[in-house]
Write a structure and sequence with these properties.
mainly beta; 16-stranded antiparallel beta barrel; two-stranded antiparallel ribbon
Length: about 300
């Protein structure tokens, strides 16, 4: 929850007896320095609440989303791995993604180099050493990304609720922004429970199952959107790990169902934690109706910076 944006005042009128005679008011700071005011110069003495710096309109890095426990690397099955580099302020400066072939050798390497301006995040993606695309993201008044543009011609806008959680994205082509797809995320008690594409139900998400009655607290802001929730962010996925797409859900999703015109995909998630409560493994088991595809299992493994 965002802290109050208004300023509260405690107003004290200076007694008339102090104004009718000349006195000095001495204000001593904690460092020992003093400031002296003559009472004849005073009309009011008041305390002014210092506003929260939580939402300053300035990007504050991955620690705002994930806390001091930052992901060092994570891998998907045996064929996809991401590695993160941070500066001393906890800002992601580089991401290395390696895709492996069936023989176990790397067959494609993606390097994302990330820089920060006053109100922008710039991400350059290199594939096998050559610049592939550049994503420029603008920071909104809440300190998270409000709009991104890619040199592929793709653009997206982001909206959030009062708790700084992502509520919708709008995807469009930069050549014609009047044509777009809107992805909406519906919350209940701090958790995404359903997603919609242009008003049509896309996925339903559950945080309790018959085998796991008690929801699992999302202590470190983990959001495995794709296999954890069935939400595909495409070019925007790196921006999530940078800390630019809002805060995580209150709990970790345990099951989700994706509906299409020709099939239904049902998924169950199993989360494993370390002694500090950090996610070290997510296993998703997926099945389809109508013999659309064979059941399969996806395993994510997470490694932490500290």
């Amino acid at each position: 929850m965002k802290k109050c944006l208004f300023t509260m005042f405690l107003i004290l009128s200076v007694p008339h007896c102090l104004l009718s005679q000349e006195y000095e008011m001495v204000v001593e700071k904690t460092d020992g320095t003093k400031t002296v005011f003559k009472t004849s110069e005073l009309s009011q003495i008041y305390y002014q609440k210092i506003e929260s710096s939580e939402n300053t309109g300035t990007f504050q890095g991955a620690k705002r989303v994930f806390g001091n426990n930052l992901v060092k690397a994570y891998g998907r099955n045996d064929y996809d791995r991401y590695e993160f580099t941070y500066n001393d302020k906890g800002f992601v400066t580089a991401v290395k993604r390696t895709k492996y072939g069936s023989s176990g050798s790397a067959n494609k390497v993606y390097n994302f180099l990330i820089t920060y301006a006053d109100d922008k995040i710039i991400c350059n993606e290199f594939v096998d050493g050559s610049l592939h695309l550049t994503v420029t993201a603008n920071i909104g008044s809440n300190g998270y990304i409000s709009r991104m543009e890619s040199t592929t011609g793709h653009g997206c806008t982001f909206t959030y609720n009062e708790d700084d959680m992502l509520t919708s994205t709008k995807d469009f082509k930069l050549s014609d922004e009047s044509k777009y797809e809107t992805y909406s995320y519906v919350y209940s008690d701090g958790d995404i429970v359903s997603t919609y594409v242009d008003g049509v139900l896309e996925a339903s998400i559950a945080y309790q199952t018959p085998s796991q009655i008690t929801p699992i607290l999302n202590t470190y802001g983990m959001m495995e959107y794709d296999h954890g929730m069935g939400i595909d962010f495409d070019d925007n996925y790196i921006l999530y790990w940078v800390g630019g797409m809002g805060k995580g859900t209150k709990h970790l999703p345990l099951a989700w169902t994706h509906k299409d015109s020709s099939y239904t995909e049902s998924n169950t998630n199993t989360w494993e934690m370390d002694s500090q409560g950090r996610v070290v493994k997510l296993t998703t088991n997926s099945t389809y109706t109508y013999s659309y595809g064979d059941p399969y299992t996806t395993t994510y493994t997470f490694f932490w910076e500290w």
